[in-house]
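pls design
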């Protein structure tokens, strides 16, 4: 791996993003976006994300992580962030923080008009609190949200719920097995003018909770389902891969039973082992089982995701479905 090539690729990627902003491109958020997207920008083992005034660098190769000092120096020169966090991705979803000049536990960022507190250096957070590959989905949910009932599964820090709050949703059920995410999400709701007491924060295994909802014959106008690859819920042993077809089919069938006529579903999975064709087949099979008619399209990504057409590299695969 040539140091000069990696640095040149990063330089080129940053210059491209700055060009987009000068041209007023609207599918990339100026404040929060992907600065470098793996193979699409020239290096399959590197991701660089911008969170407002802060940068997070993710390495998928320890040899590349050995260049962190040079990479951070280049980023500082071009972007002038207030702080940089660098992590090394390890097996089974674990991460190792190798550099951190962001001293706050949480920092607030903006995405469009939405505000979210994120945790850039928390190795145990399971993610920073927002995933940029779902940005256009959040835009869509905000547009559809007025007066709607929303089910946010595997909801983490509630970024999708924030979009629904900003759009005027009537009620949100936030479901996540990790207790600390409920407080985190409630705070994010309040940041955007939402009253956390008007919504439910369910600390439970999503599979068990879905069974209860189906027995209660509940219905939702918007459902967001993006399970983690490495689930720690009661229905899976620690480290089991959530892309297993039976588990995804169970989720898809539950969503089919809970989605109201005219409702919107985003169904996604963050796994490089999964391709869009198998995800489409899983969701279509679930809705056909209950004789539900629908329209389905591939979930779009912003243009900052330069690797989105590379099935071997892009992690999140997703669909947008509208029930007829």
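designed seq:
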């Amino acid at each position: 791996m040539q140091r000069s090539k990696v640095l040149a690729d990063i330089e080129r990627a940053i210059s491209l993003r700055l060009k987009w902003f000068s041209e007023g491109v609207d599918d990339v958020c100026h404040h929060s976006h992907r600065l470098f997207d793996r193979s699409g920008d020239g290096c399959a083992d590197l991701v660089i994300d911008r969170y407002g005034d802060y940068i997070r660098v993710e390495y998928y190769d320890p040899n590349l992580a050995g260049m962190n000092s040079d990479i951070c120096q280049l980023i500082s020169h071009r972007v002038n962030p207030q702080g940089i966090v660098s992590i090394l991705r390890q097996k089974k979803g674990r991460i190792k923080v190798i550099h951190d000049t962001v001293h706050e536990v949480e920092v607030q960022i903006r995405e469009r008009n939405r505000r979210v507190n994120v945790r850039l250096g928390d190795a145990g957070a399971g993610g920073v609190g927002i995933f940029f590959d779902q940005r256009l989905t959040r835009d869509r949910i905000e547009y559809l949200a007025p007066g709607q009932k929303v089910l946010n599964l595997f909801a983490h820090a509630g970024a999708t719920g924030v979009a629904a709050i900003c759009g005027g949703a009537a009620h949100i059920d936030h479901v996540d097995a990790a207790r600390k995410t409920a407080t985190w999400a409630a705070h994010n709701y309040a940041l955007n003018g939402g009253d956390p007491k008007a919504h439910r924060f369910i600390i439970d295994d999503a599979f068990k909770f879905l069974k209860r909802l189906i027995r209660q014959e509940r219905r939702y106008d918007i459902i967001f389902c993006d399970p983690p690859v490495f689930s720690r819920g009661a229905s899976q042993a620690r480290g089991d891969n959530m892309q297993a077809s039976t588990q995804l089919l169970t989720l898809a069938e539950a969503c089919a039973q809970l989605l109201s006529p005219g409702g919107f579903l985003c169904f996604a999975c963050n796994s490089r082992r999964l391709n869009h064709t198998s995800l489409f087949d899983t969701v279509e099979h679930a809705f056909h089982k209950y004789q539900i008619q629908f329209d389905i399209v591939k979930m779009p990504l912003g243009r900052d995701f330069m690797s989105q057409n590379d099935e071997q590299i892009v992690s999140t695969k997703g669909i947008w479905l509208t029930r007829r």
